[in-house]
Design brief:
six-stranded mixed β-sheet; Rossmann fold; alpha/beta; Hypothetical Protein Tm841, Chain: A,domain 3; four-stranded parallel β-sheet
Amino acid sequence: MSRIKIFADSTSDLNPDWIKTHDIGIIPLYVVFGDESLKDSVEITPEQLYERVSKDGRLPKTAAPSPADFMKAFQPYIEQGDDILYISLSSELSSTYQNALLASSEFPEGRISVVDSLNLSSGIGLLVMKAVHAAQKGQSLKEITHLVEAVKPNVRTEFVIDTLEYLHKGGRCSGMQNLIGSLLKIRPVIRVTDGKMSPAYKVRGKREKALDQMLQNTLSEKHQIDTDLIIVVHTMAEEDALELQKSLQEQTGGRVELTTAGCVICSHCGPKTIGIIYNKVL
């Protein structure tokens, strides 16, 4: 049986230790400042991104890997006899999935499986880890693909955005909304639904109140949470992430891991964004 090589893109926000330990292939998206195109988390870090945004006063654009990028990444593994599973950023948010499909069509049929996660950040990462563990058990490419497709509708991704500034600069809310939100200290909570980012609700007041609301939302389903892996992801909010990790571990008894978001997620959501991702067992 062929070895299964698991690929994801840089928006999966996988812990670097997981990538190294499980030999996960990562295909970076691009962060674009004017004419300068930089590979996410390869040629620019979140810290450098925030520094440039603060200095220039404008956000970068983001761009999907090209079909050629995918072909270059896939080819060595196909040539050495591996099969490939690639789990992509939601097709509702990027052309990444479509470009990966175009690239896979250039290789022998049945060797590459491309799955649309219909998710982002650690919502992708959770699916990747499910696939990794299935591959370790010796499951075939078809079996692992079916597993990921079955799990993905049950992945819950919710996060608190600390500031409306990045949503405003990115054209996702008006200047008046940004001003009012800042004055009232409104913190939007974003949920991924059907592959899209949508406002779940808004919490007025201190940041801690919004984080606690998100935690309570998760714990309200604790008897349906797959405790094999729960992920807390953050951008420059380690202290809050550690608190959430501790609370989730105590309340669910599950494995709760921390990871940090890459530049693409940072450019859309801004610093001190924090999220909880888990698989709901129906």
